[in-house]
Amino acid sequence: MSTTNAEPAGVVVGYDGSxxxxxxxxxxxxxxxARGLPVTVTYVWEFNFGASIGMPVVDLRTVAQEIxxxxxxxxxxxxxxxxxxxxxxxxxxxxxxxxxSGRVEMIVLGSRGLGGFAxxxxxxxxxxVAAHAACPVVVLRGEPEAGAGEERGRVVVGVDGSAASQAAxxxxxxxxxxxxxxxxxxxxxxxxxxxxxxxxxxxHELGALAETRLARLLAPLRRRHPEVxxxxxxxxxxxxxxxxxxxxxxRLLVVGSRGLGGIRGLMLGSVSHALLHSADCPVAVVHGPExxxxx
Length: 295
Prior knowledge:
Number of helices: 8
Strand content: 15-25%
Radius of gyration: 20 Å
Largest sheet: 11 strands, mixed
Number of strands: 11
């Protein structure tokens, strides 16, 4: 396995020495290997001006470099053959990762951490990066099964016809294909619609229409990924609750950052925000082409 300090590329993983960071390393290594991409281990450090004046003087950059080197070494042991790059940054972790997102395929983060990614909890770094990154962001929710790594179940994706959910659907098919797992695409809507149904239109008719439209969305992706066992479901229920239930035991839950229709209000702060807080498996948040980074 080669290790370089070249420009970050491929799959970027935030590492800070925590258990969550170590899990993110394993997931990123598996993803990069499956896709044939390099993986970049990134550590972002920032001087804490609020620290006590009595703290011992340390070379923070040296400490940061040691933690980064540890992450690279973990990858070397776990995934021989991968091209691994290292990236040491100083500044705001969220800002630096968002900046990198325009040049890489994916960013992988633990759900919480310490050190360079201090306070890596939703509402902090992971939520900011998921909300504004130009590339898909995977946050490792849930706990890995003992001895099973992250190779659990299927890929689950929420679909509503928006540009962001279309991008999520494309990522979900890619993930299912490269990892050789089945896929479930779900359209969900609230049992109490905000707008009354038109005259002579019944709920089951809307369900049949949704099934037809979902089949049309899936058709071209099924042709591009013929090896994927892809199934579509239309479910009446609170959208984030439907997706949470469907994703139990899944390898990955994929959602668009913003949505409409069946998954109403799919943006951070509503459905995707709820999933990032509560999912039992890793969650990928994907932006549509109309959503520039930082929007």
